[in-house]
Amino acid sequence: MKIKPIPDRLYGRIKGKKLRPRQEWLLEAFLPRTAWPEAPFGITPREIWLEVGFGGGEHAYELATRNPDIGYIAAEVFETGICSLLAKIAPDGVDAPEPLPNLRLFTGDARPLLRSFEAGALSKLFLMFPDPWPKARHAKRRFVHPDMVTEVARALREGGEWRIASDDPTYQEWTDEVMGAQDLFTVTRMTDHPEGWPHTRYEAKAIAAGRRPVYWSAIRR
Q1: DSSP string of 69-128?
Q2: What is the value of pTM for the model shown?
Q3: Among 61, 72, 119, 167, which residue's Cβ finds the most Cβ atoms within 10 Å?
Q4: Longest CA pairwise span in the chain (Å)
């Protein structure tokens, strides 16, 4: 498998439709209070978890609220998705919303963020339904990449878990190939939704459209 090195360059959309006033307020006034690394956790976390590309934020929000002793960093660059997660933390009608003490948002490229962690700093990393970049010439844009496998393995502690999910056949085949060619993780591949993994809106849409998701749990050796 001949693959070009992965570049630090963002592809895809950052901005969508014009933001509503409430969304603009969330980005301008509330985001700085929950932005990583400028706003540190309000707790001393037992572990640090990272989600790369949180989409609408429902997966990150559920895991962060379910695990209040975990420091959860959720990374996303698309403004609408960022606003969706912020709106869960600071819903309409709440006069003085407060950030969740254990959830922080990162709104830049997750790859340099990942490299900023010391070796073994993370206990879990989540990659839920990433952009598949289905064209072969775009393979270097995929987060699942031999270069990133090495970097994720460096950042995860021994026994740490990397969870991956995709509904795209090209990305599924690619993930099987990349993860099958490495020896840093023990990988379990599943076609049924794993117990304890939060559902996402994107997953539900994929299933409704007839696409069958695949899930991988990769444990750091």
Answers
A1: TEEEEEE---HHHHHHHHHHHS-TT-SS----TTEEEE-S-HHHHHHHSPTT-EEEEEEE
A2: 0.90
A3: 72
A4: 55
Strand 70-75 relative to strand 47-52: parallel, antiparallel, unpaired?
A: parallel
Crossing angle of the two packed helices 58-66 and 79-89, in degrees rounded to 10: 30
Strands (E), 143-213: 156-166, 185-190
- In the chain the beta strands, taken as DSSP E runs, fall at 47-52, 70-75, 103-106, 122-128, 156-166, 185-190, 214-220
Residue 131 annotated in active site: yes
Q: Which CATH superfamily is domain 21-220 in?
A: Vaccinia Virus protein VP39 (3.40.50.150)
Q: Which entry of 8, 95, 131, 147 is annotated as an active-site residue?
A: 131
Residue the block writes with tokens 């932005």: 35
Query: How many other CB atoms sit within 10 Å of the CB of residue 71?
Result: 24
